[in-house]
Each structure stands twice: as C-alpha cells, then as structure tokens.
Amino acid sequence: MRYSVISFDLDGTLVDTAAEITEAVNRTLAEFGVPRQDEALITGFIGHGARHLMLRLLAHLLLQEPALADRLPPDAVLQRLDRHYQATAGRLAQPYAGARDTLQALRGAGVRVACLTNKEHRFATLVLRACRLDDCLDYVVGGDLLPQKKPDPAGLRHVLGVLGGQAHRAAHVGDAATDVETARAAGAQAWAVPWGYNGGESILLARPHRLFDSLPDIAEHVLAANRAGGFAPAMA
Ligand SMILES: O=C(O)COP(=O)(O)O
Ligand SMILES: [Mg+2]
Predict the structure, then answer these.
(1) Over the stretch 24-34, which tens digit does the pLDDT of each residue have?
(2) What atom in ligand 1 is closest to the CA of residue 10?
C-alpha cells in the first residue's frame, strides 16, 4: 500500500478549538441575557459547524426553559454568533502535539495533505492560519464550501479529485463518527484519534480502521507503509 493523500479533520483532530468556540457561544448568549454555559455542554455539540452547534444548543436550552424562546430568535442569534466567532476563531486554538511536524513530514515524503472540516470555511481559515498550519496543507475544504457536509463522502471525493488521489490510496483522519463514516463511504481508510470531541462517546464505537495515539504516529505509519510498498524507479 502506498498512500498518496491523507485528509485531516480540523476540530478535535489537528486543533483543540473547544475554548474559543465556547467563548464565542457564551458572548452571543450574553447579548440575549442568557447565562454562560459549560464548555463540556457546548463541546458536546461540536461536529457540524458553528451555526449547527448553536441551533442544537438553543434547542437544548429551550427544552429546559421554554420561556427563553421569546428571547432567542434563531436568526438574530446566528447573526451575532457569526460576529463573535469571527473575533475568537484562532485566538484560543491550540494545535495538538506534533500537528505541524506531522503535516510537514507527510508532505516531505511526497504525500499530499488536506484539511476537510465541517467548520465554516472562513473560520477554518482563521484557525489554521493562527495555528501556523495553513502553509503545511495542500488543500482546505470548509463545511459550507460544498452543498454536502461530512458524513457525506462528497467532500472527501472532492479533495481526492483536486489533489489527484485515489480513494484506495487515501485516508481521512478524524475524531468523530462523522469522519469515520465519511472515509468509509468514500472508500478510503478511516483513521481516528481519541482526544477530540465525539459527542462524549469513544470513537472506537464508530469502528475506524485504525486508531492513532498521536499525530506523529500517523506520519510514521504512512511513511513506513510507503517505504514497504515502494517500488524502484523505472530504469531509463
Ligand atoms: O466545527 C465543527 O463543528 C466541526 O469541525 P470538524 O469537522 O473540523 O470537526
Ligand atoms: Mg472533528
């Protein structure tokens, strides 16, 4: 097996974004007179983009306190969230250990690397730039760039099309069941990391093909596989 493309999820895989998403959400709620919510609660809704997260949180809050409905018109809340997330995206983001080195090691070995995230593209760009990962990626696809989001395989197929890779020589790495489903549906290897946000559930329940304990382990695995599956260059 020789891998030609490795695609990475963003939130919970390359970068810990829980604190800045929580901050944007709480600054938004404060404008509507709603108390701060715990990071653990908010983190549980990460996975389908910031707007989707806010709508799920609103549904949760209204279930607990139906009278809040008058104070929280969804369109107005989403508009304010956009503004607050624009201000916090990349500010509190922490790349996981070895993120930059891993992407560079893969590229140095001739593997093309992408970031495929459900986070809105403009926010993903801010986060990647702040974490100095933008210049280590060959391609980035945010959740609002295509009509379909993960777990639809369209995004991963798009990445492979742009980078000239084939699914059977590709892997998508993620922290959520959504990522595993995306990779499998596209016919790529579904690789997972255990440190992210999967709605509080073990990612093993999603049955990834492989679980990695660190980002550098991914580069090591791919480089070893490519060395083993390598072939001598054709003689002139
Ligand atoms: O922003 C989100 O909710 C999810 O983003 P991810 O696809 O990078 O995990
Ligand atoms: Mg994720």
Answers:
(1) 999 999 999 99
(2) 8
Q: Which atom of ligand 1 is nearest to the CA of 120?
A: 1
Structural domain contains residue 234: no
To test the ligand 1 pocket, which listed residue (11, 125, 150) has its Cβ within 8 A of the most ligand atoms?
11
Annotated catalytic sites, by residue?
9
Residues 101 and 181 in one domain: yes
pLDDT tens column, 139-160: 999 999 999 999 999 999 999 9
Q: How many helices (H) and strands (E) does the chain have?
A: 9, 8
Instruction: Give the C-alpha separation, 227 to 9, whole Å.
Output: 25
Atom of ligand 1 nearest to the CA of 52: 3
Ligand 1: residues with CB < 6 A are 9-12, 46-50, 53, 117-119, 176
Shared domain for 110 and 40, answered yes or no, is no
CA distance linking residue 217 with residue 220, whole number of Å: 5
Q: Closest by alpha carbon to 114, among 68, 63, 59, 164? A: 164
Among 10, 13, 43, 126, say which to mutate for ligand 1: greatest number of ligand atoms within 8 Å of CB: 10
ipTM value for the complex: 0.96
Judge if 172 and 212 occupy the same domain: yes
**Structural domain containing residue 168:** 5-16+94-228
pTM confidence score: 0.95
**Domains identified in the chain, total number:** 2
* Pair 103, 185 in one domain: yes
Report the alpha-carbon distance of residue 6 to residue 28 in Å, rounded.
36
